[in-house]
Amino acid sequence: MRFSTLRWLAASVAVLAAGATLAQNSPLSGLSDPDIEILGQPVDPTVRKATAIVNGDVITDTDIDQRLNLVLAANQGQISDEERTRLRLQVVRNLIDEKLQIQEATAQEVTIAQEEISQAFTRVASNFRMSSDQFDEFLKTRGTSQNSLKQQIHAELAWSRLLRRKVEPFVNVGDDEVQALIDRLNAAKGTEEFRIAEIFLTATAENAEQVRENAQRIVDQVRQGGSFIAYARQFSEASTAAVGGDLGWVRPAQLSPELAPVVESLPRGDVSNPIQIPGGFAIIALVDKRQVLAADPKDAVLAVKQITVPLAADATQQQASGIVQRLQAGTQSMGGCGGAEALAESFGGNVVANDQVRLGDLPPQLQQIMEPMQIGQSTPPFGTREDGIRVLVLCGREDPPAAGAPSFDQLYAQMEESKVAMAARRYLRDLRRDAVIDYR
User: Fold this and answer.
1) What angle do CA 168, 171, 177 make, to 5 degrees?
2) Can you name the CATH fold of 15-167+434-439?
3) Which partner from 131, 241, 299, 383 sits 20 to 30 angstroms from 52, CA to CA?
């Protein structure tokens, strides 16, 4: 598994069967009877303990708070008190798994140099357009620290390297399996495929309802504006957690029978309710969809000119509307790209040309407008008071070539990764089962 993961840890409670008669196939005494007597007080999991000790390694309250604040920062802190309590419990489980991953890697003589962790931290900072020092200060303002993120990075790197050494060499993908998939892809040419992201939470028969409820709360948070990527990175137990749950492009035939119909019915950009699948629950986000082995229109490369007309700071709404109307009328009669500079000059604006604009990189509203546009046509005016009023003029288009089937090696790697992910979940499950965890 890549990156830190969410676990469900069952607390032991002593039970006594009240005149219970065991079902012959039940391995646990007394659990087949609906009337059991609880001896002693159940543990309240929301009570904050000072520490959790995992096989002798301590997780402090500060560790938990700082990791929780990382999650809150990703969601702008806009969560209820109830959700905060639930996230805190998940963070504890997450930190426990990180300890188990690092401990197992150390036991197998897999070590990660501090320099490697620092380099990964710098790469994360660069994603935020910050230096390492700036990112460190940013984290402090959010009530967390670089040490919290670096431990997460350490666990991810150590676990990934351990899997390459202990799991991947024993995972086999047959050439016939890959060829069969290539044949199915070619046979499905022209049908739809989907780019999806996932969050996977393990569950057992005993805790399935609790896991479902927690998965639904994650769905609710994402639908209210929370970051699907952040939840996936922090809490998903799938191997895709490190990349925000991104599964890439898949066809319904590659998905389980439980997931395929849900994916096919999801609107683009939507998130599913929790779906029960073997081993737990999945939450699916539909990022995009296209036709199998067909050129993706979003890969078209456009040559455009952008006309920008500034607005005075004291311009009224009526004045701005007048400029928009005159600019739109002007673009319709300017004669295409060749007249863009003269039109911009007449409005006191400017023109910027770019001949390497990928259609799929534009905002969704502009994608819908520009996909059917002809050379020389212009978009309606758009913009803000601060940025000015803008228009894009289409000067050229290079449509993408017809797509071919993924290579044998690409499909082999995908199938191998899927099998490694399943083995990794079993590996971590065994580590949890054998762990000695003490709360104090």
Assistant:
1) 130
2) Triger factor/SurA peptide-binding fold (1.10.4030)
3) 241
User: Is the CB of residue 162 less than 8 Å from the CB of residue 104?
Assistant: yes
The Cα–Cα gap between 271 and 266 comes to 7
Residue 5 bridge partners (DSSP): none
- How many whole angstroms separate alpha carbon 347 and alpha carbon 350? 9
Query: Containing H/E element for 358?
Result: strand 350-358
pTM (predicted TM-score): 0.57
Answer for the pair 406, 79: CB distance below 8 angstroms, yes or no: no
Q: H or E stretch including 231?
A: helix 228-235
Domain ranges of the chain: 15-167+434-439, 184-295+416-432, 297-398
What's the order of all strands across the beta sheet hosting 275-277? 246-250, 192-202, 280-291, 275-277
Separation of alpha carbons 214 and 201, rounded Å: 9
Is the pLDDT at 11 greater than 60, yes or no? no
Strand pairing of 246-250 and 350-358?
unpaired
Measured in whole angstroms, how far is the alpha carbon of residue 331 from the centre of its chain?
41
Q: Taking 60 as the threshold, does the pLDDT of residue 35 lie above it?
A: no
Q: What is the DSSP letter of 440?
A: -
- Token readout for 3 is 């990156």
C-alpha to C-alpha distance for 72 and 44, rounded to whole angstroms: 23
Given its phi and psi angles, is residue 11 left (phi above 0), alpha (psi -120 to 50 degrees) or beta?
Answer: beta
In three-state form (DSSP H/G/I as H, E/B as E, the rest C), the secondary structure along 197-214 is: EEEEEECCCCCHHHHHHH
Q: Say if 15-167+434-439 and 184-295+416-432 have the same CATH topology.
A: no
List, for residues 413-436, the tens digit of each pLDDT value: 888 888 888 888 889 989 988 999
Confirm if 194 and 263 have CB atoms less than 8 A apart: yes
Query: How far is the C-alpha of 203 from the C-alpha of 274, rounded, in Å?
Result: 12
The residues, ordered by sequence, that sit 6+ positions from 115 with a Cβ below 8 Å of its Cβ are none
Q: Which CATH number fits domain 184-295+416-432: 3.100.10.20, 3.30.2320.30, 3.30.360.10, 3.10.50.40?
A: 3.10.50.40
**Per CATH, the architecture of 297-398 is what?**
Roll (3.10)
Mean pLDDT along residues 341-364:
90
C-alpha span between 218 and 281 (Å, rounded)? 12
Q: Which of 77, 75, 70 is nearest to 94 (CA)?
A: 70
Q: Which amino acid is at 336?
A: G
For residue 378, give the DSSP letter.
B
